Each structure stands twice: as structure tokens, then as C-alpha cells.
Amino acid sequence: NEIKVFCPATIANISCGFDVLGLALDAVGDEMVVRKTAQKGIRIVQLTGQDLPMETHQNVAGVAGLALLAESDYDGGFDIEIYKKIKAGSGIGSSAASSTGAVWAMNQLLNKPFSNLELVKFAMEGERLASGVAHADNVAPALFGGFTLVRSYEPLDIVKIPNPEELYATVIHPQIEVKTSDSRRILKTTISLEDGIKQWGNVGGLIAGLFTNDYELIGRSLVDHIVEPIRSILIPGFDKVKEEAINAGALGCGISGSGPSIFALSKGAQTAQEVADAMRKVYQKIGIEYDIHVSKIN
Ligand code: HSE
């Protein structure tokens, strides 16, 4: 009647795939305990690590859980304990981890009446609360693991993408907060055909590189002509961090989700560590506090 879950952090967009590509970071995530109760509804009974609302309708896990309950014939409820390790507003899918963890755990406790695709839909309601838009590029990899592509939102179609064995992500989080809702508001809502052509060329290239273990192709495709030029203005030192990461051997580097975290993908653990050192030095020089970690992508 009780389950403990690990809820992974995720990198959304992965440069060229705004709102459609994402990957799960197995080394970083929250913990949650979810318990069946006779009392109807969802209650957040414990929340540590971050200052976030515990009222069910104001909490992403609460809202995602209510979306599941609305589709379920279960007439009891759930108590949720959330132990946050992922910082809210850091750009590595904090809200997605909580939303996804809640619905995944509830589904287990109900003997899995829902598919992963249905769970993504419920978790997206948490994202709607967090950012105003029910994007799925963090919740999909949090649920499926590894890389995922949101091939379509209507109808929802998620494709799991394999990745080469030796692929590592380095993520640095400068200690400034960027709200997803703010960093979405500054984006333009139209793009030129010219930019579209570049962008979908890179999305196709990235997917092809992941399928064929072609690290060079992955690197050439980690380019974003549309969102990064606008959002990077909100992240002090972004251009320098990117330059240094590439010089240290990263395949590519970009904004993680809506920022301010910056990610780099590398071939091999050693390169990923060297990239971490190079990125770290930039923020040490500027004098901005940071967290940094390296994860293997499974
Ligand atoms: N795709 C979303 C965005 C991810 O970039 O706004 C937010 O984590």
C-alpha cells in the first residue's frame, strides 16, 4: 500500500528539439513516497528540500495525481511525501520529476490500469500548472527513461529513442532562478522558413546520430537556431561556458530546458569530467555560485 520512487531530473529540448526532445538523468532526482488511503483525494503530507506549495491544487504532484484519479474508478485516495533534491527553476525538470513520480507510483499501487502514454498525459497537467503550458518533453523521458521524442501532441505520440553506450551529460546550474513561464514569454511565436529548415535538419540529424551511434553527427546536430539565441541572454556567461565546453571536447552544448542550467553531451566519462572542469572555471571566474554534475545516459 506504499511505494518509494526515484524521480529523475531531465534535460528538455536538447538544443534543436524545443518542446519535443528530452532525456533522463539517472544520477540526479527526487524521492517520493506514495501511500494509498481510504480518504478520497490527494494530500501532500510532507515536502522537504524546496519551498513549494503543499496545497493539492497548487502542487504539481497533486494536480497530476488528481488528473489520474479523475480517470480512475478507484474510490480511495493517496498521501504523497516529496523529498526534493532538484531545485525548482533550475532547468532540469523539477516539476516534471514530481508530477511523473506521483502518477507512476499511483499507477503501481492501483495495479497498473494506465499505460505510460496515459501517465504522461496526467503528468502534463502538472507542467501546465508549473509553466502555463502542458509540455511533455520533461515528463516523457522521466517516465520512459533515456531519450524521448514527442512526435505529436495531438494526438499524443511519444517515441523512445536509443542512444550510444558512451554518451554522458554534464549539467551546470548557475545559482540564478529563471522561471519557465518567463523564459517562454520572451520567445517569438513565429519562425522563418529558413530557420525551420535548419532546425528540422538538425532534429533529424540528432535522431539519426542517436540511432546509428554516430557521435560526430550527434555533435553537428546539437544546434538551436530558434530558442537559444533569445533565451541565452537570460543566462550570464552562457556563450563562454558553451565555448569552453566545446573546446574541452564536448560534442555539443546548449540550454537545459528553459535554463539557467547549461548542458553538454560528451563521448566518454573522462571527457564529460574535463568538460565539467572547463564549465566550472567560467563561473568561478565570473563569481557565480553553481552546482555541477555528470550523468551517464542510459
Ligand atoms: N520545453 C520546455 C521549454 C522545457 O523549453 O520551455 C521546460 O523545462
First and last CA, distance = 30 Å
Question: What is the percent of helical residues?
Answer: 25-40%
Low-confidence runs: none
Largest pleated sheet: 6 strands, mixed
Category by helix and strand content: alpha+beta
Shape: globular
* Percentage beta strand: 25-35%
Mean pLDDT: 97
From N to C, what is the helix and strand string? EEEHEHHHEEEHHHHHEEHE
**Which small-molecule species are bound to the chains here?**
L-homoserine
- Number of distinct helices: 10
Q: What integer value in Å does the Rg equal?
A: 19 Å
> How many individual β-strands?
10
Summarize this entry quickly.
Catalyzes the ATP-dependent phosphorylation of L-homoserine to L-homoserine phosphate. Helices cover about 40% and strands about 25% of the residues.
Write structural notes for this entry.
The chain has 298 residues and is of the alpha+beta class. The chain has helices spanning 60-70, 94-109, 116-131, 139-144, 180-185, 193-212, 215-221, 228-231, 238-247, 269-286; strands spanning 2-12, 21-37, 41-48, 77-83, 147-152, 157-161, 167-174, 252-255, 262-267, 290-296. Strands 1, 2, 3, 4, 5 and 6 form a 6-stranded mixed β-sheet that branches. A 4-stranded antiparallel β-sheet has the order 8-9-7-10, sandwiched between helices. The longest helix has 20 residues, at 193-212. The protein is globular, with a radius of gyration of 19 Å. The model has no long low-confidence stretch (mean pLDDT 97).
